[in-house]
Each structure stands twice: as C-alpha cells, then as structure tokens.
Amino acid sequence: MKRSLPLIITFLIGMFMIGEFFIPHYRYRVWTAEFLEWGLILAAAAFVLGFVNLIQVNAPKVARRDADWGYKLIMLVVMIVTMVAGFIAGEERSRVDNLYKWVYDFVFVPLNATMFALLAFYISSAAFRAFRARNLEAALLLGAAILVMIARVPAGESLPVVGEYLPKVMNWIMDVPNIAARRAIFIGAALGAVATGLRVILGLERSHLGAD
Fold first, then answer.
1. How many CB atoms lie within 10 A of CB 100?
2. Rounded CA gap, 178 and 140, in Å?
3. Contact (Cβ atoms closer than 8 angstroms) between residue 191 and residue 199
4. CA distances from 54 to 37, 62, 77, 87, 171 (A)
5. DSSP character for 104?
6. Where exactly are the structural domains of the chain?
7. CA distances, 79 to each of 48, 95, 171 (Å)
8. pTM of the predicted model, to two decimals?
9. Interval 112-124: pLDDT, tens
10. Neighbours of 198 (CB within 10 A)
11. DSSP secondary structure string, 43-92?
C-alpha cells in the first residue's frame, strides 16, 4: 500500500489535470485552479524541506571541521541572517534602508554576477571545441558563428565591400536556420516532457518514490 497509494493519487490527479485541456466547462477549471493552488503550497513546503536538508547536511561537517567547512559555515550564517532579516522586515523588506535589501543588492547580486561571469569562460572553451571543422556540419557551424560574431561588432560593418551585407546575412542566419533549429529542440523537449509525464502518471516511472 505504501507504493500503490502514491501511484493511485498521481494517476487520478494527473488524469484530472489533463482533462482541463479537453473539458471547457468553467466548473472544471475552478477545480483545476484549486489543485494548482495546492501545488504551490506543496512547492513552498519543498523549500522548507530544502532548508532543513541544508542544515542536516552541512552543520555536521562544520562541527567536524571537514574539508571546506568554512565555506559551509558562511553559507549557513548568511542563509539564516537573510531569512531572519526578511521575516523581521515583512512587507517592507524591499526598502532601500532595509538589511534584507542590502544583503540582496550587495551580496547576492554581485555573487550571482560573478558566477555567470565564470560561466563565460566555460562557454568559450566549449565553443572552441565544438567549432572545430572536423566535418561538413561542424564547418557550417564554424562559418555561421564567425559571420555572426563579425557582424555583431561595429568593425564588421566597416569592412570594405562586404560590410553592408554582413548584417543582412546575420539576420537571415538568426531568423531562419537558427529559429528552425530552436523550434526543433523545443518540440523535442516538449515531447520528452510529455512522455516523462505520462510515464509518471501511468506508474511506469517510479524513481520519484525512492529506491526499493
């Protein structure tokens, strides 16, 4: 029963939510909206579980002085300080003179920008490996990337003869083959999401229930 009951609930709720796309009655949409509200409540509870899990995982490592325990201590202290500041400030937490706002603007935002700045180096490294002209497809990708990068900078438009045509070629590359490839990727991702959802609803996918 411990396994069967979650599968039954998942199947019933999943089929009920799918029915929203086929049953246009307003009463049905009221019920599906109610279920979505409960889903938001469960998502909020997941944040609480994540908070408890962070403490359970990192606090013992800090107490034992394991490797990199100082970083874990800083994370726990900043997390608790931010939460306390947010709870104390309440609805006024977005004010400029508030501690929560200060932590967000001068701690979180710079660290977030630093993380994305570091990602630029990994993206450049991956692009260098991907753009090697080992076959026809890679050569086409390399040529398109070079044209787009040259056309994006002011120096590209100032090139003699070809400068005035580069922006037009870049716009065609971005609007036609690029959009077509993105749509194909989105369609594939959507089909994968639908297939995964159906596997969960039908009970074929049970990894979310934990190991046997």
1. 21
2. 12
3. no
4. 26, 12, 12, 19, 47
5. I
6. 1-66
7. 13, 20, 45
8. 0.58
9. 899 888 887 887 7
10. 13
11. HHHHHHHHHHHHHHHHHHHHHHT-TTHHHHHHHHHHHHHHHHHHHHHGGG
C-alpha triplet 147, 148, 149: angle, nearest 5°:
95
Listed in sequence order, the residues at least 6 apart from 177 whose beta carbon sits closer than 8 Å to its beta carbon are: 144
Average pLDDT rounded to a whole number, residues 166-186: 91
Tokens for 53?
């899990």
Burial zone of 151 (CB within 10 Å; 0-12 exposed, 13-18 middle, 19+ buried): buried
How many angstroms separate the CA atoms of 101 and 95, rounded?
6
Whole-angstrom Cα Rg for the chain: 26
pLDDT grade, residue 210 (50/70/90)?
Answer: low
pLDDT at residue 211 is higher than 60: no
Residue 73's pLDDT is what? 92
